[in-house]
Design a protein that fits this description.
Layout lengths: L12 E2 L7 E2 H4 L3 H4 L4 E5 L6 E7 L4 E7 L6 E3 L2 H4 L14 E6 L2 E6 L4 E7 L4 E6 L5 E6 L2 E6 L4 E4 L3 E2 L3 H17 L1 H9 L11 E2 L3 E8 L6 E7 L5 E6 L8 E7 L10 E5 L6 E3 L30 E3 L3 E2 L5 E8 L4 E8 L5 E8 L20 E2 L5 E6 L6 E6 L4 E4 L7 E6 L5 E6 L8 E6 L4 E6 L4 E6 L5 E8 L2 E9 L7 E2 L6 H4 L7 E6 L5 E7 L10 E5 L16 H12 L3 E5 L9 H4 L9 H16 L7 E6 L1 H12 L6 E5 L10 H8 L6 H7 L11 E7 L7 H14 L4 E6 L9 H19 L3
Parallel strand pairs: 14-15, 41-42, 41-43, 43-44, 44-45, 45-46
Antiparallel strand pairs: 1-2, 3-4, 4-5, 5-6, 7-8, 8-9, 10-11, 11-12, 12-13, 16-17, 17-20, 18-19, 20-21, 22-24, 23-24, 24-25, 25-26, 27-28, 28-29, 29-30, 31-32, 32-33, 33-34, 35-36, 36-37, 37-38, 39-40, 40-42
């Protein structure tokens, strides 16, 4: 390993042709330097106030603000009153009132009178609030059970009596409970004050060794659907905290590793309240439920699966009349998605949609996570459902008409529907999509009957739109490439102007002329078009060197027209450009916003096409910008760190140096939800893991590498980088360093750590690309 001494005179103090120099420790302060922007925008229930949050650097806490849309006056809400605020919540059965859960209290809110009433306030947690046709009634879950509250009668009633364990154990439990109540006045008094009276408790439903996943009641209150799942004890990983308040090392639990999660066993039951009627729904006839994944042919497995795939059943969505339930089901391996209609009266279960992907189901409005149902729902007529699908290659809106059995694609084109919300009258969808350009998030009205689009906000950038309760006004969070997020107001109609409300940037941030990076495209080696952000220096300053930045993954996009979540990196790239570097930030394969084929191109081979895109981007710079092919470095964090490792270990001739921040080194040690979609599991697809994990290519290291990692990272754990360094040691590799940060997790929080990390990166680039 090389010992590098960082001298004070090497710290960057780079002039941007302005009065004050841009300094690394300032930009690494992040939003403390930029200015904290408004977030968590929401309307009051009546629509007369907009609330938003913003972090206050001075007080070191997040404060809630109230904005009057008529006067644009903004006031800070005292922290003790924030919990008492009532926000807009949709009640599909009433426009004048709704129920809500505030803390552990059940409240109701009358919109016209602006009256908030607290009905039940106990220490028990309440969840799964459900409005029904009767506007005076609401259902909620407390503990294992479902409760019905009647506002008019001021009456609470327990609807279900789910009991853990089996009947034999419960009988013993009942005896002890009865004994305690007979003996002790304190128990009698406690039960008397409980909102649940024992004489109202229905017949018990024993759960055995299963978990109650969800409980739902139909709007007409005639049926209850509940979902059971198997219990399992995850095999948690651990990480070590070395710097603690007590001075003793502590071990902390974190997520399980891929392939160690026990497959769920979901079961859905239909229960008629007040009766013994319980029916389990049968999902064994789902299309492709025993279809073996194609990749298993590589292991000599070609027959059908011996048993049904493990499935995840999401909470049912009832139509407005309460006669039918829309059910969303996903396979645990996330290669299948089914939509079904259950007729509550007849008991008929009908499959209306089967989506299958040999890679994995995902995309905007669909979700890469198999525990999410995605954007689905009922139209106002109770006989049509909408959903999103990638069948066309891009995520678009579809209908299914139950009366005609007809399936129809509503939107079409080489763009994606990122959000779609049905208007209250059911006539249009409010849509956010990248229709004008992959790098924009624009807002539209879409008339589903005529299929006509109406442009509302199509200016370059990102329009995050929050509709007022009456849908006449819009609160909009908007940002551009070099302009951070601010809050704006507008009317919900075409041609309306955005009126800026907040000014969040600091004077120091505003004093700089921040670059608007060019959005460019280049052809990859497979002739696919790849988008990227290009930061170009002035010709007079160009040093012929370039840096490739690799953004993180999950499902993310960074070559776009709005303010980047990588704001420190954006400012760092400004600094690099002023030093004469060219910077390219690529939306490599698997990035968000470009359709199904782009999304799944890394299936079974991370570090394949996604790495090729980095190399092809480098070659484009050489050919079109005049970059010296021998003066190119690469860096990135998380997945970007992983790609940096794959670049230096599998294509060592391409880059002169690399910085791998919080990088995955062996995918068999990462989490299940993300990794299993792309690489399946290590036990079932060892080939995919071996060709995708840097640790298997450690012998390929030839150029300069610095590894950066937080020691309390509970996501990509410190063990990852330690295992790779042991391989380097055993292989006799010398041109690498590991820089550890004792108090930092996956996302760094201290300015000093950010500054140290990027100072070392910058010095490496200067030393190995500029020969300084």
């Amino acid at each position: 390993m090389k010992l590098i001494v960082f001298l004070a005179f090497l710290l960057p103090c780079i002039s941007l042709s302005q009065s004050a120099p841009l300094q690394l420790n300032e930009i690494m302060a992040g939003d403390d330097f930029i200015g904290h922007q408004p977030e968590n925008i929401r309307w009051s229930a009546k629509g007369d106030v907009i609330y938003f949050d913003r972090y206050n650097t001075a007080s070191k806490k997040t404060e809630t603000y109230a904005l009057d849309p008529k006067t644009n006056n903004t006031t800070i809400i005292p922290s003790e009153k924030v919990d008492q605020l009532v926000y807009h919540r949709e009640n599909p059965f009433s426009i004048s009132s709704f129920f809500a859960i505030s803390g552990n209290s059940l409240i109701s809110y009358d919109i016209k009178s602006n009256k908030r009433l607290v009905h039940i306030s106990t220490s028990e947690n309440k969840s799964e609030l459900q409005h029904v046709k009767n506007p005076q009634v609401v259902y909620f879950r407390q503990g294992l059970n479902l409760f019905r509250f009647d506002k008019e009668l001021a009456q609470i009633k327990v609807i279900t009596n789910f009991v853990e364990g089996n009947e034999k154990a419960e009988k013993n439990k009942d005896y002890l409970q009865i004994q305690e109540e007979n003996l002790f006045e304190a128990i009698k008094e406690r039960n008397k004050n409980s909102p649940i009276q024992s004489n109202n408790v229905p017949k018990p439903i024993f759960l055995g060794d299963q978990l109650l996943y969800s409980i739902s009641v139909s709007p007409n209150e005639d049926y209850i659907l509940y979902n059971l799942s198997n219990k399992n004890t995850p095999n948690y990983t651990e990480y070590t905290e070395f710097i603690t308040t007590e001075g003793y090392v502590k071990s902390r639990k974190a997520r399980p590793k891929v392939g160690t999660v026990e497959p769920p066993v979901h079961r859905l039951f239909v229960h008629i309240p007040g009766t013994d009627s319980i029916k389990e729904l049968d999902f064994s006839n789902l299309s492709g439920i025993r279809k073996r994944p194609e990749y298993q042919k590589e292991y000599g497995l070609t027959d059908r699966l011996e048993k049904d795939k493990s499935i995840i059943i999401h909470e049912p969505i009832f139509n407005f009349s309460g006669t039918k339930a829309l059910l969303s089901v996903k396979s645990f391996d996330n290669k299948d998605r089914w939509l079904l209609i259950y007729d509550l009266a007849s008991g008929e279960l009908k499959e209306i949609e089967h989506q299958h992907d040999e890679a994995w189901i995902g995309g905007p409005g669909i979700s890469n996570w198999n525990y999410s149902s995605g954007n689905i729902g009922w139209m106002k007529n109770s006989e049509m459902v909408y959903f999103q699908s990638e069948e066309s290659g891009y995520s678009h809106l579809y209908f299914f008409d139950l009366k005609t059995g007809k399936r129809e694609q509503l939107t079409d084109g080489n763009f994606e529907i990122h959000q779609a919300q049905l208007s209250k009258d059911g006539n249009i969808f409010y849509i956010t999509a990248n229709k004008s350009h992959p790098g924009n998030q624009s807002f539209y009205h879409f008339d589903w009957k005529t299929k006509k689009w109406k442009d509302i906000f199509v200016k370059d950038g990102y329009h995050e739109v929050i509709l007022s309760p009456d849908e006449k006004s819009l609160a909009v969070r908007y940002s551009y490439k070099n302009k951070p997020w601010e809050l704006y107001l507008s009317s919900n109609r075409a041609g309306s102007d955005l009126k800026q409300i907040t000014i969040s940037q600091t004077d120091k941030f505003k004093s700089y002329n921040w670059i608007e990076p060019d959005l460019i495209t280049f052809k990859a080696r497979d002739d696919k078009e790849v988008y990227a952000r290009l930061y170009k220096p002035n010709k007079s300053k160009s040093n012929g060197a370039a840096i490739i930045f690799v953004h993180g993954a999950g499902y993310l996009q960074n070559a776009h027209n709005w303010w980047s979540g990588y704001h420190r990196e954006y400012m760092f790239h400004n600094l690099l450009t002023e030093m004469g570097y060219t910077v390219l930030d690529i939306d490599y394969r698997a990035s968000k916003g470009y359709g199904r084929d782009h999304r799944t191109a890394i299936y079974r081979h991370m570090g394949g096409t996604d790495l090729n895109d980095q190399i092809d981007g480098k070659n484009w710079l050489v050919k079109n910008v005049g970059v010296d092919p021998n003066k190119v470095g690469i860096y990135g964090g998380s997945y970007g760190g992983f790609i940096t490792l794959m670049a230096l270990l599998t294509a060592p001739e391409e880059f002169q140096c690399g910085g791998a921040l919080r990088s995955v080194t062996d995918w068999a040690h990462y989490n299940h939800g993300y990794t299993s979609n792309i690489l399946n599991t290590p036990e079932e697809d060892s080939i995919a893991y071996k060709r995708s994990s840097p640790i298997y290519f450690a012998e390929g290291l030839q150029k300069r590498l610095i590894l950066f990692h937080g020691m309390v990272d509970d996501n990509v754990q410190y063990q990852d980088v330690i295992r790779l360094t042991q391989r380097f040691i055993e292989l006799g590799k010398t041109d690498w360093d590991l820089v550890s940060y004792p108090v930092e997790a996956h996302g760094f929080t201290t300015t000093s750590a950010w500054t140290d990390e990027y100072r070392r990166l910058l010095q490496m680039f200067n030393n190995y690309l500029l020969n300084e």
